[in-house]
Known about the structure:
This protein has helices at about 1-15, 20-50. The chain is built from two helices and no strands.
Amino acid sequence: MFASVFGTFVPLTLEKFKIDPAIATGPFISITNDIIGMLIYMSISSWLIIAFGISH
């Protein structure tokens, strides 16, 4: 869902800055999906560590 919203607004924003949206949108969406994916992964991992009481 986030990728589709981001994929809609990034080209519109890039067009306002006179940057070709067809070329520049791909890297922005890929990087954002990677960051959001890692945040979700780390959040779930942190929750599981707390839930199972795993600590040093």
